[in-house]
Design a protein that fits this description.
Strand content: 15-25%
Radius of gyration: 22 Å
Number of helices: 14
CATH superfamily: Metal-dependent hydrolases
CATH class: Alpha Beta
Strand order of the largest sheet: 1-5-6-7-10-11-12-13
CATH topology: TIM Barrel
Distance between the termini: 51 Å
């Protein structure tokens, strides 16, 4: 073989080898925008409580009790290593980590102390794995002064990247006037607010056949985001970064009716600057809904710039969201935005 042929063969072989290696390597850089962890310190605190919410152990199982809403807390819900393994299995680079309800608002005067305990526990996990986790705070919103102080501590001292805001706060909808300061402060700080369903207001109506999570949580998302739109908060705070989980609940599928009710029948607030559907298209939505047709509709309704990958781990394994997304055979640029690009921009990573 002469030198020219040798060099050509070498370059071609190297390129082929590089291509083969790239094809064999799993994709990297996915960002998970909704993932949860219970903390042992917080469960121990709730074990000592005499009033709900509280935790108790029975026959080797941990139960979390809030009224007639009783949930099991298996060991892997507290297991950081299990979460890291799930992330690695799906090539998730960074997870936006938060606790899950009950939030501090359920603990009355103890709320500020509970929020600090949650956030200190979360900060401890992040400190051990600083390249893998970022924090989202939950606030004791029954106490505005304490909540504002804790928000500043989380963002400015602990380096948290956003706010997890429950759709209802111990029975008050998250758009009610006593919470308006939070939207203004989040806009000022430039941190996103991520909505998340709490114990549903409709628990009594949907608890039959264990439909609380299937229906109750989705109704919570739908009602909360519709109320935020109708409240005019998005006109008052045009730079607010807002995320609705689970593909917006059901609102993307029925917002045409909301448009009609408001603009044609004149039912509802008449001071909004845009149609409800236009506000909804300006809001980020995560894709935690393991049905490819629903993901496709959200993409068509909104845009590739407004969808975020989330897993809702540990209740949902990341693969159960990734597989439906990849079954859509989206172009590489669109998929990259959903899997990481939008989140990097949203959270200033």
């Amino acid at each position: 073989m002469n030198r020219r042929h040798f060099l050509t063969a070498t370059v071609t072989g190297s390129a082929a080898a590089s291509h083969a290696a790239a094809a064999a390597a799993p994709p990297v850089g996915i960002i998970d925008c909704q993932s949860h962890l219970f903390f042992p310190e917080v469960l121990d605190m709730m074990r000592k409580r005499k009033t709900e919410p509280l935790v108790y152990d029975q026959d080797g199982t941990v139960f979390l009790k809030m009224g007639d809403w009783l949930r099991k807390v298996p060991p892997h819900y507290l297991d950081v290593e299990a979460k890291l393994a799930a992330m690695d299995a799906s090539s998730i680079e960074i997870t936006m980590l938060s606790t899950n309800d009950p939030g501090p608002e359920w603990f009355s005067d103890d709320g500020p102390a509970v929020a600090r305990l949650i956030h200190d526990s979360l900060a401890g996990v992040i400190a051990k794995h600083p390249t893998r986790f970022r924090g989202l705070c939950v606030l004791p919103l029954q106490n505005e002064i304490a909540a504002a102080e804790e928000l500043d501590r989380c963002v400015k001292q602990l380096g948290f990247k956003g706010i997890l805001l429950y759709t209802n706060l111990a029975g008050a909808w998250c758009d009610e006037p006593q919470f308006h300061w939070l939207y203004a402060r989040a806009e000022e700080l430039g941190v996103p607010i991520l909505l998340h369903p709490a114990k549903p207001m409709t628990t009594e109506q949907v608890k039959g056949y264990e439909l609380t999570s299937t229906l109750g949580n989705m109704f919570e998302n739908t009602i909360a985001i519709a109320r935020i739109i109708a409240s005019g908060l998005l006109d008052k705070h045009p730079k607010l970064k807002l995320v609705c989980p689970h593909l917006g609940g059901t609102l993307p599928y029925i917002c045409g009716r909301m448009d009609h009710q408001l603009t044609v029948l004149k039912r509802g607030p008449q001071n909004l600057q845009r149609k409800p559907s236009e506000y909804l298209r300006s809001i980020y939505m995560d894709i935690v809904s393991p049905l490819p047709e629903a993901m496709r509709f959200a993409l068509d309704f909104s845009s590739a710039d407004k969808l975020l990958f989330s897993s809702d781990h540990p209740w949902v394994q990341p693969k159960e969201i990734l597989d439906p997304l990849r079954s859509l055979n989206l172009d590489a640029a669109t998929e990259a935005k959903i899997l990481s690009g939008n989140a990097r921009q949203l959270f200033s990573l």
